[in-house]
Give the backbone structure.
Amino acid sequence: MSPTFKTIAKFQYSAEAQIIKGRLESEGIEVFLSDHLTIDTDPLVSNAIGGVKLKVLAKDALRAQHILETINKYSVDDDGNAIQCPNCNSSKVAMFSTIKDFKSFFSFMVGFLFGTLPFYAKDKYRCDDCKTEFDIK
């Protein structure tokens, strides 16, 4: 019987997946990444193909998901402290990239037309509890 892999997580970029892969392998879980080479070659196709898929053997899936749940998925500052939402004071804050201003849009278009990485991206934070978007100064 051949081993069956199960997808337990998807990531926009392979760097994120590689970090989690290393964590799972340190726990003795065999990990396979799919579509990471395609996304490394052209990051703009990540959303189109569903991101980098992190797969483990089906027999290790529950253990791997438990390890993933123990990893903090919210943003921290340079000192390792959780970033707080200015609206509701929650620590469930995640960083995201946005294309809402002209500079970000122009950078995206140049990257799209010439097949290069965008040279500028605007990062903001969003609270998972109250959905407030804010910048950190």
